[in-house]
Amino acid sequence: MIKIPAKVLIVDDEKDFVEMFSLRLEGQGEKVSTAYSGKDALKVLETTIIDVVILDIRMPGMDGIDTLKQIKKLYPIVEVILLTGHGSTETAVEGMKLGAFDYLMKPADFKDIKVKLENARKRKDEQEERIRQAEARFLLRRSGDV
Amino acid sequence: MNKLYDNKLRLLIVDDEEGFRRTIAKRLAKRGLKPVQASGGEECLGILKKTPMDVVVLDVKMPGISGIDTLRLIKQEFAKTQVILLTGNVAVSDGIEGIKSGAFDYLTKPVEIDHLVNKIKQAFEMIRLEEEKQKELEYRAKLEKKMIDTERLVSLGTMSTGIAHEINNPLAIINESAGFMKQVISTLEMSMFSQKDALLMGIEKIEKGIKRARKITHQLLDHVKKPESQFSEVNLKALLYETLGLLKKELKDKNTTINWKIDKKKNVVWSDPYQIRQVLMNLLSNAVHALQKNGSITLSICEVNEDIILEIKDNGIGIPKENLSKIFDPFFTTKSFHEGTGLGLFVVHKILSNLNGKIDVASTVGKGTCFQVRLPKYDKSNG
Questions:
Q1: Does the distance separating the beta carbons of A87 and B164 come in below 8 Å?
Q2: Can you give the residue range of the structural domain that contains B85?
Q3: Is B164 on the interface with A (CB under 8 A)?
Q4: Within this chain, do residues B66 and B161 fall inside the same structural domain, yes or no?
Q5: What is the mean pLDDT of each run of 10 residues along chain B (383 residues)?
Q6: Enclosing domain of residue A33
Q7: Measured between alpha carbons, how far apart are the two ends of chain A, in Å?
Q8: CATH number for the domain including A70?
């Protein structure tokens, strides 16, 4: 089966982490964009189509939760996986209530990452498919009206 | 004199005038006191060395060591003993000097016997008061030490959580770097590289190291209160059963007997089931670890007023005395890393103090260990 690359955006203020993580994901055949802050992430989203955002919760300036809120407001279909170095899953759960797909605790197991990334992408694909179908039905009905 | 003092009050009379001393002793005896007698300072100190006394009635004017000197020696060596001085009618200054040197009081000769009895009684009362004060001081010191211990553990907890958190970030970088290198080495173009296996082994060692460090940091962060865990009715007996189920293999391997001593009440607390389970798991697995083959674990639950007390008792190897004060410290362990991180009891302590509970331990080497957990039936501050 030919793998369709997922379009991933990694957002973390830890540059070293972002660099290595993106190399690794690219090695796995994903298409990776990177951003080192919440603001940068929103800029990337303006110009690039992204399936899944992997977003660190703790960042200086605009933190992960604020970034998540913005992403969900502007791009509700884009899936977000939260990364946390924080032990308390409190914020992660809050994030999921705000629409994040799931969360990962740093340092995360790569297998976990892959599975969650896959599922997040799948959910986005399915959602898009449903939208397409709904649109098609809508168009059909409209053409029927004419 | 009331009966209470008859057997308890140890009294010594010291006077060089034998006639006077005997008369006083006799009259005191009539009032229920049985004084020991001494004819001088040296004899008095000799008696005190062998038999401790509560009250000494001491004549000031004596040949040999003077009364005042005797008094000072008594106060030096037997600080608890109270001394009543007997002074001559004109020598008030002796009495004052005596009080400065630590005498309880002084009486002038000739002595009114009821007056003397009263003074003796007061002096004895003073000893009892001081003993009580001493006991209270000791109790308070103990309490303070316990509070300091608890505070120390709490601040250690805060610090270790912070450190764990900070370490996770660089750990994630190492993890991704190692993972990436592994990925690269596993590609086709690297198959010709002669040292591929050695390199792969090196990377795997890094990954193993990361896993080990992660185990510690995650364990340290594990007990941070989880918002998704709600307070609910927790049946301790059921939870114990459940936890024992998770330890089934270990229990069977060691052929462990489980004894239950549970009162017929409901055995429920209003608390956080997730965290209580963590406590039970840590305590039970410690108990199993401490056991030799064919050992036993005794589980008891009882209600005392507003609390539920749970005891987990094993007849295993026990904890040496010098370790007892350290077992709740983070990273204190007598096991190798693979068997334990030294965080189990630390986490237990932290959870229980969050839940307004308490934990105590008693242990004898070779006989076993008993952990006592006390939880409020209804935790008002967290309900």
A1: yes
A2: 3-111
A3: yes
A4: no
A5: 60 90 89 89 91 91 87 90 84 80 87 89 89 88 78 74 82 92 88 87 92 83 60 88 89 92 84 87 92 93 90 94 87 74 85 88 94 87 56
A6: 7-145
A7: 43
A8: 3.40.50.2300
